[in-house]
Amino acid sequence: MPVKADRPHMLTEEFEELAFTARNRMEGLQLEFIDGQLRSRALRDGSHGVVVQWLTRICMQHHPELWLHPGRGLKVQAGRNGRAIPDASLGHSAAFAGHGEWSDPDPVLMAVEVTSWNSDTDRRHRQEKPRVYAESGIPVYLLIDRAECEVSVYSEPDGQRYECVRTVPYGRDVHLPDPVGITLRTEVLKDWVH
Description:
The protein has 194 residues and is of the alpha+beta class. It has 3 helices and 13 strands.
């Protein structure tokens, strides 16, 4: 019998316990729980981290009251039964103060993913993540796709998907719509493809 979101192979509580144990026993291992299925996140290379730092600087320059929270675990999907870990989540500086390992996505203005060099990038970053972030009501999803040398901005979530998607190649400016309201100059991303 195939695993489906309505028939997961484990309960959300069981996943949270497994993810906690894995993170504490295996350095760098992060687990996600999407559509009732267990997913492991690939280890990030140095350029991946530099891309997140670059975006952090830009966000702080435009919105000093906000912070790009790295690796914040979010309760996603309908019923908040899924668990995802965006590379970064834009929200007020104290948005997650007092929260445990997994937070409601309500304070998140933008979820950010930077692709890694793994075989499930297409399914995870280009298919699953836009859907689960839209289902969760996150206003903007930013995908910095190092494999395709493109930046995709997803906006206007309708509860199932993002109604607006804009993709530009590295080197072209792209606007992050409100509530973010920043224009990114993406030329520098060409330096961090590998």
